[in-house]
Specification:
Mean pLDDT: 89
Helix content: 10-25%
Order of helices and strands: HEE
Strand order of the largest sheet: 1-2
Distance between the termini: 29 Å
Shape: elongated
Strand content: 35-45%
Structural class: alpha+beta
Low-confidence stretches: none
Number of domains: 1
Radius of gyration: 14 Å
Length: 49
């Protein structure tokens, strides 16, 4: 999950924006099935300093 957040943040920063997480879901059972994560995000304008 952390790598997905990092990649989404890098994607938005490349557009001069910030990543805002909209939804995160995890599928699977630890130890029984592979865990899969689904991240929905949007890129928003960075606040002015």
């Amino acid at each position: 999950m952390a790598s997905s957040l990092r990649r989404a943040d890098e994607y938005c920063k490349g557009q001069g924006k910030e990543m805002e997480s909209v939804d995160m879901k995890t599928h699977g059972a630890r130890g029984w099935t592979p865990l899969e994560s689904e991240l929905t995000f949007k890129c928003v304008a960075a606040p002015k300093a």
